[in-house]
Specification:
The protein has 18 helices and 20 strands. The relative contact order is 0.09. It is elongated, with a radius of gyration of 32 Å. The strands form four sheets. The chain has an eight-stranded mixed beta sheet with strand order 12-16-15-17-18-14-19-20, sandwiched between helices. It has a six-stranded antiparallel β-barrel with strand order 5-6-9-8-7-10. A four-stranded mixed beta sheet has the order 2-1-3-4, covered by helices on one side. Strand 1, helix 1 and strand 2 (about 40-45) form a beta-alpha-beta unit. With about 575 residues, it is α/β, with parallel strands linked by helices. The chain has helices at about 20-35, 65-80, 85-95, 230-235, 255-265, 280-295, 310-330, 340-355, 370-375, 410-415, 425-430, 450-460, 460-475, 485-500, 510-520, 530-545, 550-555, 560-580, and strands at about 10-15, 40-45, 55, 60, 105-115, 115-120, 130-135, 140-145, 150-155, 165-175, 175-180, 185, 205, 245-250, 270-280, 300-305, 335-340, 390-400, 420-425, 440-445. Mean pLDDT is about 90; it is low at about 1-5 and about 100-105. Helix 15 crosses helix 17 (about 550-555). Bound molecules: adenosine-5'-triphosphate and magnesium ion. Adenosine-5'-triphosphate binds near residues 255, 433 and 502. Magnesium ion binds near residues 254, 255 and 340.
């Protein structure tokens, strides 16, 4: 009996199936190598991301870029011993000094272009988030991978590009240059200076999208990040590494809270990053000037993608800000980052998604808009001691329409953050500023970070205010109230008055403690409403003058002893009695 000949088979490995032309070329190669007809099959493999590997029986051929380079290198070293002219050293040098950055790996063509979006074809190995190079120095980032085409967002003006223009892969994901010299500067979404003070030297290159620190790399939030705003530090304390949302309608003082928090970090060794998305350049210039005149630009970086910038730049701005923050965090620094605001960011993302032809979902946002914000906010962390102990605290801002917190973007971001400061128009217009709605605001992890002194001083303020609000609604239409109820209303109104605080007037911890202890122990009850603000100012001055030791000790240790507490109550009552006699 004759033995059946073993059937030979050629297997082609790559991460993507070969195009018909490529298949034809492989078949021609097989025919030229082997005298028989060999069937060619393709198998998916992620081992060879940059090309193909062909296996025929025991023979294997490397068509990957790495393999070709390796072959070239060994071919060069073999030539060494033989007669070689001057070309060889030149070639060797070129191969040895080869850098992945300078190679344009694959060339494709622009299929269509417009509105800051380019569709390109013939890029078979392009990856999501990879930077593409176009003519005229235009850069773009791959944002949509389809079967035959790739959607790309442009970072520069693409007006000069035409259909059929060439485009090259770079093999790099989008990133920005970062350095300590960024502190005090205003940069765009790509890290370039836009304050007219010259280029910023780059120390490191960081991808704008990078994985969030894992659970092992983190530790729990335990140190306070003081905002200097009494209503927040007493009731909704923020810890380093926390993500606290600031949410409210337009013109309710959202930016003001973030700005005051930045001002309050003066001398506290916290690097602040303010990311403005889709705002007018003039208002950001004013805000920067405000920071500068108050000395806060010494530790602050402003990242700005204005309303008139293309949507792709507005889209990457928060990620760029986050990459800068990570650079500092990983060196063990504490960083505070403000995203002002993520509603506009979501809108920019919606714009470019619709232009890319993605199908719209709820409120016309693309389906992955939740992931958009979660992967950004997850990068905030309190790193473990092994990772240097740095932290990134995030204050994202979201604008609501007519107080509707149940809209798509607000609910998404509320669910990602560790709490929210809810600002209300009606409070703002009635003069209660900052317009914090005590009932709807919450801070989920910051309580652990609050100092003992603040905890002890703030005691039952939330409960007292809740009771006051209930009582207020209940007694709204009744005319004769008993004395106890009246007193409780006056007490509640007094507390609300105490929580009013002007802009740019952050309070130190010891000042907050003194005010809270005095007010919650009913020391201010007999002061008329209009007198509360001047009385508070006087009380603080008095303590600053006559009880310096107590002030310094609370600030330093974060502890309020019973004796200190008594001292504050007694002094406050005395001052109040003196005030009434005037
Ligand atoms: P937008 O929706 O336009 O971004 P916003 O919610 O960020 O507005 P801000 O710009 O911070 O609001 O504040 C609106 C106005 O209210 C500003 O003129 C600001 O100076 C004023 N303001 C904010 N907070 C206070 C405060 N605590 N006391 C007095 N005025 C304030
Ligand atoms: Mg604002």
């Amino acid at each position: 009996m004759r033995e059946k000949p073993v059937e030979r088979r050629a297997v082609l490995y790559s991460n993507q199936p070969p195009t018909p032309e490529q298949t034809k070329r492989f078949q021609e190669f097989l025919e030229s190598r082997y005298d028989e007809e060999i069937p060619l099959v393709w198998e998916e493999s992620w081992e060879f991301p940059k090309g193909f590997r062909l296996e025929v029986g025991l023979d294997s051929y490397d068509w990957s870029i790495d393999g070709r380079l390796r072959q070239l290198r060994s071919a060069l070293s073999r030539i060494q011993g033989e007669e070689s002219d001057k070309v060889i050293p030149l070639l060797r040098k070129a191969v040895e000094s080869w850098q992945p950055e300078v190679i344009a790996e694959e060339e494709g063509r622009v299929v269509s272009i417009g509105d800051g979006i380019a569709t390109v074809a013939e890029l078979d190995y392009a990856t999501y988030g990879e930077i593409l190079l176009f003519n005229h120095g235009v850069r773009g980032m791959i944002q949509d991978l389809r079967e035959h085409e790739t959607g790309c967002i442009l970072f520069e003006n693409g007006d000069k590009l035409r259909q059929g223009s060439p485009v090259w892969r770079t093999g790099r994901t989008a990133g920005i240059g970062v350095s300590e010299d960024m502190i005090g500067r205003v940069v765009d979404a790509l890290g370039g200076a836009i304050d007219g003070k010259g280029d910023i030297p780059v120390r490191a290159y960081r991808p704008i999208e990078s994985p969030a620190p894992g659970i092992i790399d983190r530790q729990s939030v335990s140190r306070p990040l003081e905002t200097g705003i009494l209503a927040i530090d007493s009731m909704f304390p923020i810890g380093k590494g926390q993500r606290e949302l600031i949410i409210g309608d337009r013109q309710t003082g959202k930016t003001a809270i973030a700005l005051d928090t930045i001002l309050n970090q003066k001398g506290k060794d916290v690097i602040c990053i303010y990311v403005s998305i889709g705002q007018k350049t003039s208002s950001v210039a004013q805000l920067t000037e405000n920071l500068r005149s108050r000395g806060a630009m010494d530790y602050t970086i402003v990242v700005h993608a204005s309303a008139s910038d293309p949507a792709p730049l507005q889209y990457i701005a928060p990620y760029a800000g986050c990459a800068i923050a990570e650079y500092f965090m990983e060196q063990g620094n504490d960083v505070l980052i403000v995203y002002d605001d993520l509603s506009k960011h979501a809108i920019a993302y919606r714009t470019l998604s619709l232009l890319l032809g993605r199908s719209p979902g709820r409120e016309a946002f693309p389906g992955d808009v939740f992931y958009l914000h979660s992967r950004l906010l997850e990068r905030s962390a309190q790193l473990s001691e092994e990772r240097g102990g740095g932290s990134m605290t995030a204050l994202p801002i979201v604008e609501t329409q007519a107080g509707d917190v149940s809209a798509y973007i607000p609910t998404n971001i509320i669910s990602i953050t560790d709490g929210q400061i809810f600002l209300e128009s009606s409070l703002f217009f009635s003069g209660q500023r900052p317009a914090v709605n005590v009932g709807l605001s919450v801070s989920r992890v910051g309580g652990d970070a609050q100092t003992k002194a603040m905890k002890k001083a703030a005691g039952a303020i939330r409960l007292d205010l809740a009771q006051y609000r209930e009582m207020e609604v209940f007694t709204q239409f009744s005319s004769d109230l008993d004395d106890a109820t009246k007193r409780q209303l006056v007490y509640g109104q007094g507390l609300m008055r105490m929580l009013r605080q002007g802009q740019y007037q952050p309070l130190q911890q010891y000042q907050q403690v003194i005010l809270l202890v005095a007010a919650l122990n009913h020391a201010m009850e007999d002061i008329p409403m209009d007198g509360i603000a001047p009385f508070m100012a006087e009380l603080l001055d008095f303590f600053q003058l006559h009880h310096q030791g107590l002030c310094g000790q609370i600030e330093r240790t974060g502890i309020l002893t019973d004796q200190d507490r008594e001292e504050i109550i007694t002094a406050a009552r005395e001052r109040a009695a003196a005030w009434r006699k005037r």
